[in-house]
Design goal:
Number of helices: 3
Shape: globular
Structural class: alpha+beta
Distance between the termini: 32 Å
Helix content: 10-25%
Largest sheet: 10 strands, mixed
Length: 177
């Protein structure tokens, strides 16, 4: 907006999100999300939202619509992934800002829930942002292994006021996002 002072964070929809943009946020490294030890192959996201401060990309969240079953009942979720905030600007509400924009868009896509995977130390952050951890195993696909149990925490959030996540085992019919 024209009246915003310089440096005010706003979310934009990104036309692309490459390793270069990820490095701009997190720096270059072999394991920027701290999940390499899980040994998983991840899907790229299809839609991307970012926050720029003073022209630099400092936050990102990606979305991908995916098939899932809960206790055998098939449906779809909006998978959220690639959530990142640059270390120097953490604690300023940028994760909330970029996730809110991504979830606002996700609400227009049809699925009733969004789902993400995170390391256990991030569970409190996502709880504060309205996400709920699942207390069940989640099965995901992996190349060469078939179906494996997700070693990270799975969290969900409703995309509609009347949406309630059903109990039961979860099976993601794809690689994780």
């Amino acid at each position: 907006m024209a009246n915003e002072p310089p440096g005010t964070p706003t979310v934009t929809r990104l036309s692309r999100y490459t390793k270069t943009e990820q490095d701009e946020i997190l720096g270059s490294g072999d394991d920027p999300f701290g999940v390499a030890a899980a040994g998983l192959t991840w899907l790229p996201k299809e839609e991307h939202f970012g926050v720029r401060l003073d022209g630099r990309l400092v936050a990102h969240a990606g979305l991908l619509r995916l098939p899932v079953a809960v206790e055998g009942e098939e449906t779809e979720v909006m998978g959220v992934g690639g959530v990142a905030v640059a270390p120097g600007v953490r604690g300023r509400g940028l994760a909330r800002l970029v996730l809110t924009a991504a979830l606002d868009h996700a609400r227009t896509q049809g699925p009733r829930h969004a789902l993400l995977f995170c390391r256990p130390p991030l569970v409190p952050l996502y709880r504060r942002l309205g996400w709920h951890p699942l207390d069940t195993d989640v099965l995901v696909e992996q190349p060469g292994s078939g179906v494996v149990t997700m070693p990270l925490r799975t969290m969900v959030t409703p995309l509609r006021d009347d949406a309630h996540w059903p109990p039961g085992r979860v099976r993601l019919y794809s690689l994780p996002m």
